[in-house]
Amino acid sequence: MNAKPADPSAPLADTVANCLPAELLADPLFLLVRVGVAIKSGAVEEFERTGFGPYHHSVLALLDEGARDTQAAIADALQFDRGTLVGLLDDLEQHGLVERRRDPSDRRRHVVSLTPAGRRQLAEFRTIITSLDDQFLAPLDDRERTTLLALLSKIATHYDPRFSRGGEIAATV
Amino acid sequence: MNAKPADPSAPLADTVANCLPAELLADPLFLLVRVGVAIKSGAVEEFERTGFGPYHHSVLALLDEGARDTQAAIADALQFDRGTLVGLLDDLEQHGLVERRRDPSDRRRHVVSLTPAGRRQLAEFRTIITSLDDQFLAPLDDRERTTLLALLSKIATHYDPRFSRGGEIAATV
DNA sequence: TATTGTTATACTCTATAACTATA
DNA sequence: TATAGTTATAGAGTATAACAATA
Fold first, then answer.
1. Residue B166 pLDDT more than 90?
2. In the predicted model, what is the mean pLDDT of chain A?
3. For a tag site, which of A133, B7, B74, B84 has the least CB within 10 Å?
4. Which domain holds residue B101?
5. Is the entire prediction scored with pTM above 0.85?
6. How many domains does chain B have?
């Protein structure tokens, strides 16, 4: 709707007058959504100069961890729909960052793999992520960042167990 | 892209195999965006039966706090663009929840005010918000919720001072 | 000429589902 | 008949900017 940061040159009086209702500012869910939107658009902006977006990073990051390599498995793991993934892989393949080859044992499947150029691009994506982290989490020290991650992880996992980080689910098996 | 929660009837093995890359799950920003998207669509869904959405709640909540009552002031405070606000106010006015009347001292301006019906609707919106809070924050105790709010508030305010809750800015004046 | 509110337009995302080639 | 990948289409949401009325 309107996610631009405040104009830093605006007089302070305006800034104060334009502040959001206390009722909303007191709601963690409201802030979560607003901050999430801001981060998302900040990320898109930061990735822009690479010609890719955050979703491309997600795909490369997944491939780098091995295990999931057919398009269906990748899409399911990242919770992308398969049609969307096709477009992302087209982009990546066109720039030689991934390869698609047919699975000889089931010729419907495409097995996707990272190329050396893909690994290099992934490294660059990671520096962008790091800079985004520093940018948005600047006001938090390390301990606070860890706490935030733990809280968000709890919320996410409760919403959908697929957000679980190892341990928890395995422990219940 | 795909914000549906996991199918609870899916076998656990699938759930584990489909989990997201550790690299992403370890990034607070990634979780923030994903959780934000989930909350947003959850909110839209919960509000649906009222015939309104979360944005309508924001408008009523602001009006209930007084002070900002012209359309430009409302839009600026909520960080909506003015064109979007027109549509929201149309919806609210059509249902008798707000009134628009021309400002006699500047006939370009519309002064917007809550009606009694609007106040009642706001009360209903608040129960929806409470239930959303409980739904998404269920795994957090009160202390954790307070911590989360404080951390998000820091991040938001650093990104844009208009997210500040009273105190901080006033203190710097 | 600038501002308030309004309307119309265009563009981006994304969700759906039709389609092909294999199994 | 069902599945993997692909493509096309349509719809929601949003950003842009043109517009009429006041100042």
1. no
2. 89
3. B7
4. 12-139
5. yes
6. 1
